[in-house]
Amino acid sequence: MNLTSFFIYCIVVTFAPGPSNIVILTSVGQVGPRKTMEYVWGATVAFGVLLAASALLNHLLAEILPGILQVMQIVGSVYMIYLAYQVYKMGSTETASKQVTGFLNGLIMQFVNPKVVLFTFTVIPSYVLPYYDSTMSTFLFVIIITIIGFFAYSSWVVFGSVFRTLLNRHQKAVSILMAFFLIYSAIMVSGII
Asked: Which of 8, 119, 130, 104 lies closest to 53 in space, CA to CA?
């Protein structure tokens, strides 16, 4: 196994902007880092569960994966559009932020986030299972990748905290821009473009 390639893949995918990272960045400006960390914990738990499911159910899912991915694209796109609306509302009301942040929303977002689902269903079968067949080694890689994901989400909280004043000063513009990115992500995931 090429560990360098494995770590580069994990870091690039988890740190790259995606629906969860956009919600995290926007939420930090609205509710602060402490409240946003609830969302991060939910996202991290779901990320780990998806990785574990990929590792444990790889053979079963390989046969039905195309159908699952199509459903996830549709559900994920609809949920991202809903989140885009919620993020847009953050620029105009204080109560909107409570609807997007929180442990449960972080958890749900990961299960319908096609970026995360595709990553978790490819990283274990591509990088781990061809080289390690023991349950313990697979479990160790699930933990390592989950920790990388947690650091990625937390880095977005730190970034949002550092630039919080700037983000709050341009709250409406940032909310519109982040909502646009979520809608763009939804369109790209749906396969329309």
From this structure: 119
